[in-house]
């Protein structure tokens, strides 16, 4: 009987998903229609970051977003509403997930990637505390920059300086653009993220985010001001590509709320013994552990194309460490 060989990489983690870290099969060759269908049904027909962000966008659009006609001039009423539409979901989702996973410890260590707890009494972090550091950089830095950009885009839409569509005008494009937004986000993120790993930008800017080697829900967009100025330029695509305000709302929450789940530190959220929702992203967890790999997302496989893909194996860790050593020597 052959003996099962355990990949030594698994021993470095509390929980390590089996097999290589998955990438979107849409870009694989030869085409695999079954795998593509499974990938997208898993993303859109379960409780995931995508479906959560889409639900928040629909609720926010229907119940709270002011009509574009009110946004033709900068006025406190609608501008404060946009700010609250950023602050409230971010606080509720990140705060709720942090409470359940790290304070209440509602599922213990089940599906938790890293064995360690979040850091306290460490001078590396603002306020000597990882969670308070992350809350400050999220609500103080990220939400401020995101809101400023959104004010400009909504104002441009309202004044006809950005192309706006309705469902009645372009129902097919309305749906297609909704599916493309996560891919555009991944494309934009890969290249801005690679830029931020330039030694000078990393030292003075991106290092704020990478204080979080062991990540938690508040780590998602805990970024330096300058990094947020780059990160949220992804929204400016709506100044060029014909969009509905709901597209922008979905893009907003996908960019701001989905990192809460991907940085949660847990692959799945458990309800007793049931896997209730997909949460953490081991693809990005590996980036926080080893830095110079997995710069993008699994949605668009730029890392595989450009040789920076870490598939979760010990061999990939050795390759990444060699690449990092070469970069910094």
Task: Describe what this molecule looks like in 3D.
The chain is mostly helical. The protein has one domain (27-280). The chain contains twelve helices and two strands, in the order αααααααααββααα. A hairpin with a 2-residue loop joins β1 and β2 (274-278). α5 packs parallel to α8. The chain starts with 32 loop residues before the first helix and ends with a helix.
Q: Any idea what the radius of gyration is?
A: 20 Å
Nearest-integer average pLDDT: 94
Helix coverage percent: 40-55%
Number of alpha- plus pi-helical segments: 12
Strand content: under 5%
Query: Helices and strands: which structural class?
Result: mainly alpha
Outline type: globular
The poorly predicted ranges are none
Largest sheet: 2 strands, antiparallel
- SSE order in H/E notation? HHHHHHHHHEEHHH
Count of structural domains = 1
Counted beta strands: 2
Distance between the termini: 46 Å
State the strand order across the main sheet.
1-2
